[in-house]
Amino acid sequence: MKDQKQAGFISLPKSKKQCKLYHQLGTFAGNLNQLPDAQAVLKDRAKSAPVHLVPMVF
Q1: Per-residue pLDDT for 58 more than 60?
Q2: Could you report how far apart the first and last alpha carbons of the chain are, in Å?
Q3: Distance of CA 42 to the CA centre of its chain
Q4: What is the distance between the alpha carbons of residues 11 and 5, in angstroms, rounded to a whole number?
Q5: For 15-47, what is each residue's pLDDT tens digit?
Q6: What burial class does residue 21 get, using C-beta atoms within 10 Å of its C-beta: 0-12 exposed, 13-18 middle, 19+ buried?
Q7: What number of H helices and E strands is found in the chain?
Q8: What is the DSSP letter of 33?
Q9: How many CB atoms lie within 10 A of CB 24?
Q10: Which residue, of 41, 48, 53, 58, has the fewest CB within 10 Å?
Q11: pTM to 2 decimals?
């Protein structure tokens, strides 16, 4: 049997802002795994990012 090595530790975020950011990133990553249906493809048009997400981009 192989020995298993622990690669890293997960620590919970200390600030509420960072916790919300992690939640948004997790939701975004989860949505990337879904294949869009025909209606979603037709609805998906290019649009600018919401103002509250701008600090996350820059």
Answers
A1: no
A2: 47
A3: 23
A4: 18
A5: 889 888 888 988 888 888 777 787 877 787 777
A6: middle
A7: 3, 0
A8: T
A9: 13
A10: 58
A11: 0.42
